[in-house]
């Protein structure tokens, strides 16, 4: 059987995980598969040859991206040179759109088939980017069900493959087990605070979330608060905010390294920044309040570019205002605490939300890796077109 050669680029740990599942599904269908490019340890475990590690592509905000532009541009140009000198049968860019779409455009112009896995959020902020995507991509693999229609209108072949988190998360999360793992009381109110994964997000949202927590503690004296944070830097920022906002108030706060899924599963209500964590909370069937703050100039620019009435993925995916969104000036400790209490006080609303989130979970649960692999095979001259 002919060896099939696929080049890939995955950025950061999330891309490494997503790509590793896709590689495993492809290898089941293509025993003589050879893969190489930029990837991480999970991809390497499937037999992927990493010419550069994926963490070289990780940047944190615009400032870091500018500082590392020369380094990243050099890697991208060297990778392009190698791939053009010995063309693969297919190139797959996994997320990392700012890096991969540039590469895909130039590879496709030289006759190399290209696939992009995870659509950029053209439906939220950057609709004009679809023109560049049309030049870059032979096939787009979409995580959300409404995305293929957007690409069809622009003449870009696309396939809905579901969201990998929906495959990973159980349909019925065990809240009692999560509380046991985190050593939380079974019958006390528990609130999870997820102020974001980026340092700028935590800096903007920690005072808001802590202010709301103090007000909630006054209303629920036996409440517990759990705060999963991803890095040492975000933990230091958050702990600094605790000192400034809560002082000696004695807020019953448990700061965790990671364990975000356990924290959300254990919680009665989640306070969360807009982003993937809000989708995780929805898949865990938890009531939530989405909040976001940013610099004034950045907010005005984003507001001008946005053309959806929501910023949170649960509301966007369900196309209705299922959970409250407190953005910028509306994001105050009093409003956030009141919105959390509204969930606590209305059992019927919580049950209705749980049922709606169950429907969403089942819609997104598609066995993503297998469906993506099947969509890719026609580009290699195998299988039926998606």
UniProtKB/TrEMBL annotation:
Pathway: Bacterial outer membrane biogenesis; LPS lipid A biosynthesis. Condensation of UDP-2,3-diacylglucosamine and 2,3-diacylglucosamine-1-phosphate to form lipid A disaccharide, a precursor of lipid A, a phosphorylated glycolipid that anchors the lipopolysaccharide to the outer membrane of the cell. Belongs to the LpxB family. Keywords: Glycosyltransferase, Lipid A biosynthesis, Lipid biosynthesis, Lipid metabolism, Transferase. This is Lipid-A-disaccharide synthase. Transmembrane segments: none annotated. It catalyses: a lipid X + a UDP-2-N,3-O-bis[(3R)-3-hydroxyacyl]-alpha-D-glucosamine = a lipid A disaccharide + UDP + H(+). InterPro entries: Glyco_trans_19. It is an enzyme of class 2 (transferase). One of its GO terms (biological process) is lipid A biosynthetic process. Pfam families: LpxB. One of its GO terms (cellular component) is membrane. Its EC number is 2.4.1.182. SUPFAM superfamilies: UDP-Glycosyltransferase/glycogen phosphorylase. GO terms for molecular function: lipid-A-disaccharide synthase activity; phospholipid binding.
